[in-house]
Specification:
This protein has 4 helices and 20 strands. With 414 residues, it is of the alpha/beta class. The N and C termini lie far apart (64 Å). Keywords: Cell wall, Glycoprotein, Hydroxylation, Repeat, Secreted, Signal.
């Protein structure tokens, strides 16, 4: 009997060693899951999905107050709460073969971490985990999810450097990492990816926006609440055909507003408030013909507000408080909030302005030389190629009833 136990132990060691060599970290983590040999899975894909999800549940989920994973039992993974299956597209497998295409545990308040075993979900198109308590690092094994189209890890407790695995996901179009504790620089390669939405706000990221920032074809970019410093890149003019919303609030930007912002003909929301932008507001801003919300408050902008800006046809809210503007055209009354839209400037005959001494001290200094910031000049980019179709053209779970719906921020940010 003793010899048999020793033999079994030796076999287990050999098998685990082979798993590590053959499948790497993800497969090694999955080796702890026992699969009942009597179970018959429709495909190897669904067996791998079972191993991945059980690895997560058994080893990496510590608290599930809403019992979302309570029915994660047995081989029928497509019946698990929050797990969605769909036929594999194209030549991805046998005709009609089904795979796990989505995992949605949004607002689950689940505590735990993301195990490397998730790398076994190689057919996943959607991974939505916002508003939980997942902590630790994003596993490098996620780079194996070659069909992943949407990744939402927002409003968790994830840490470490920007997760490099997202740079190797060829199908990724929606990236949401906001309200975590990622720190350090964001690789410049991110802005060369064919992403449609980038949410990185409210982390601990510290870097200067690279000169290829404008290469991004994203329609929505939200980077607020990180520290960038440096220039508002002139390359954002290359986003003219795609960008709808951009929020660069409280990012420590320190430069002039480049005139290329006027090329953003599709933008509807442009918010660069709470930075250190200086110099005049360029009259080219009037090229934003579709802008509805324009916020440049809490900067060091000076001179007169260009009249053409207030005459923009779709503009509903123009806020430029806490700057040093000296002139406001009468047409601005239509779009500037009466209560506080223009306060704390140097505007004559307007209430709640800076004191004459403050304005005199500011204008006693030499005018801002925008060239002194040494920002990279604008270089037009070549035309964009159309993005490939999504990995799963059929219907998937309606996770976002409103496009790019935000999770509620944690109390710290309210």
């Amino acid at each position: 009997m003793r010899k048999e136990v020793v033999l079994v132990a030796m076999v287990v060691v050999v098998v685990v060693s082979w798993v590590v060599a053959a499948g790497g970290e993800a497969a090694a983590a999955a080796a702890a899951v026992v699969v009942d040999p009597a179970w018959r899975f429709p495909s190897a894909r669904l067996r791998d999905a079972y191993v991945a999800l059980q690895t997560w549940k058994q080893t990496a989920i510590f608290s599930d107050p809403k019992n979302l994973t309570a029915d994660w039992v047995g081989p029928a993974v497509c019946a698990y709460t929050g797990v969605f299956c769909a036929p594999l597209p194209g030549a991805g497998g046998a005709p009609g073969e089904v795979a796990v295409a989505g995992v949605d545990l949004n607002h689950g308040d689940i505590a735990g971490y993301l195990p490397a075993g998730l790398g076994l979900l190689t057919d996943l198109a959607l991974l939505h985990l916002n508003s939980n308590r997942f902590c630790g690092l994003v596993p490098d094994a996620l780079r194996r999810l070659r069909r992943l189209h949407e990744l939402d890890l927002s409003n968790n407790r994830l840490v470490g450097a920007f997760p490099a695995a997202v740079l190797d996901l060829p199908a990724l179009r929606f990236l949401d990492l906001r309200y975590n504790d990622f720190e350090g620089a964001v690789p410049r390669q991110l802005f060369d990816l064919p992403l449609d939405a980038i949410f990185l706000n409210h982390n601990r990221l510290r870097f200067a926006l690279p000169d290829n920032f404008g290469n991004s074809p994203a329609s929505v970019i939200v980077l607020a609440g990180n520290h960038f410093g440096g220039c508002l890149p002139a390359s954002l003019g290359n986003m003219s055909a795609t960008l709808n919303e951009i929020l660069l609030i409280n990012n420590g930007l320190d430069s002039c507003v480049p005139p290329e912002v006027g090329l953003l003909r599709e933008v509807t929301v442009f918010d660069v408030s709470f930075n250190s932008l200086a110099g005049p507001l360029p009259p080219e801003v009037a090229g934003m013909r579709k802008v509805e919300q324009l916020d440049v408050a809490h900067n060091r902008l000076a001179g007169a507000v260009p009249e053409a800006v207030c005459d923009l046809p779709r503009l509903k809210n123009f806020t430029f408080s806490y700057n040093y503007f000296t002139g406001e055209p009468p047409s601005c009354a239509r779009v500037v909030p009466a209560a506080d839209g223009d306060r704390r400037n140097c505007l004559p005959n307007r209430p709640y302005q800076r004191t004459p001494r403050q304005c005199a001290a500011f204008y006693a200094a030499p005018p801002v030389d925008c060239a002194a910031f040494q920002c990279k000049p604008f270089v037009p980019s070549p035309p964009l190629l159309p993005p490939p179709p999504p990995a799963y053209p059929g219907p998937l779970p309606p996770v976002y009833p409103v496009p790019y719906a935000s999770p509620p921020p944690p109390p710290l940010y309210r």
